[in-house]
Amino acid sequence: MKRLTYLLVFVLLTGMAYAQKAKYVFFFIGDGMGVNQVNGTEMYLAEKEEGRIGTRKLLFGSFPVAGIATSFSASNSITDSSAGGTALATGSKTYNGAIGVDLNKQALRSVAYRAQASGKKVGIATSVSVDHATPAAFYAHQENRNYYYEIACELPQSGFDFFAGAGFLKPATTADKREATPVYELIEKGGYTIARGLDEYEEKSEEADKMVLIQEEGCASDCLPYAIDRKEDDLTLKQITESAIEFLIKDNKKGFFLMVEGGKIDWACHNNDPATAFTETVDLDQAISVAYEFYKKHPKETLIVVSADHETGGLGLGTGTYTLNLKALDCQEQSLDALSRMITDLRKQDTSWEQVKALLADKMGFWTKLPLSWEQEKALRNAYETSFVKHKVEFKETLYSKTEPLAVAANEVISQIAHLGWTSGSHTAEYVPVYAVGAGSELFMGKMDNTDIPKRIAKAGGYK
Prior knowledge:
Blueprint: H1 2-20, E1 24-30, H2 35-50, E2 65-70, H3 81-90, H4 111-117, E3 121-126, H5 133-139, H6 148-158, E4 162-164, H7 183-189, E5 192-196, H8 198-204, E6 210-214, H9 237-248, E7 256-262, H10 264-270, H11 274-297, E8 302-307, E9 311-312, E10 315-317, H12 336-347, H13 353-364, H14 374-389, E11 396-397, E12 402-403, H15 405-418, E13 420-422, E14 427-428, E15 432-438, E16 446-449, H16 452-461
Helix pairs in contact: 2-11, 3-5, 3-16, 6-7, 9-11, 10-11, 12-15, 14-15
């Protein structure tokens, strides 16, 4: 009898372990997406769409398992995206600036390679360039994140099945500024089909063995457009995710691992641009919704994990008044970058203060929808006088943009009106959120370090 009991327990435990193995794994990374980016977006949606104080949950915010993670690197209390991406990819800490290598600059093995070794197909996708820090950490091994050409050269060597993003930053120039064979040629020689845009993808995907999907010819190679600036024909992260799933399930009985990065939450937060940051978070959620629809068809075999490499901007929800006015952000019709370009265009002509006011009223809702205090209007007028009249133009430089001083002033005003504060134009050491649903999702409950996440994904997937 005792022996029979032990046998039954063993069978039950074996069955439970088997049930935890995820055949299909999605790993979504919101670059720069701290806890307050998520909470702020959900509170913004409640005010904007339902006219109430509270939260309107993002899809991933309603996942049954939630936790938080620390994000410091081996060299710095505050990580950069390369060390943060390497931690999320490999489960190992490294120095800021490193891509897929340890402190001794030795190659680390990512969870994507472990999935591949276990027979899974692998996809790496992003809303920024394919050779950017976070996606690169999953397939490349370079001592410096700025070695873009060298990173891209490792793409065909990986043998992964699907890549997608805006393009490549240095497709024919090495780190030491020598001209080299274009990476597009190397990628095609490596057995990959390159599709520029969705139309080409549809034409080529059926016959392709391995695929690289990037934006159409003539589009930016560094990033997809911000969701708030998007035009009808622009490639989106949601479309990329749909294409990735479609490609990875083709002739596939063993499952897949897919990493998808929403890279421009970080860019918007470097700019301290709340409306754009919240819209980018919603955009990531829409990509996650595609994976969730897949999960509903394969609930016992699918794991979805959502996290971030670090927080950006030190976003504070409240500036001392015990109130928020997040619905004011809905008056902003474009990103700070787009507004800056419009102001630069105005600078090319003799532009009056009234013309500037008309632009800010149209694009930011100032005066027409959002009353300004005397101090706020004075800040805008002073920025106009300094840069347009006195011609003392000092652009604000962040990691990914240079911004017109008048656009910077307008952005500060919209944050004031919304009662949002920013402590930084860079990264912080704040906790990042972790969400999960599906097979093995219980592994992601509670407090953890960022290096724990890929280890637990590998465990849930049963990777070698």
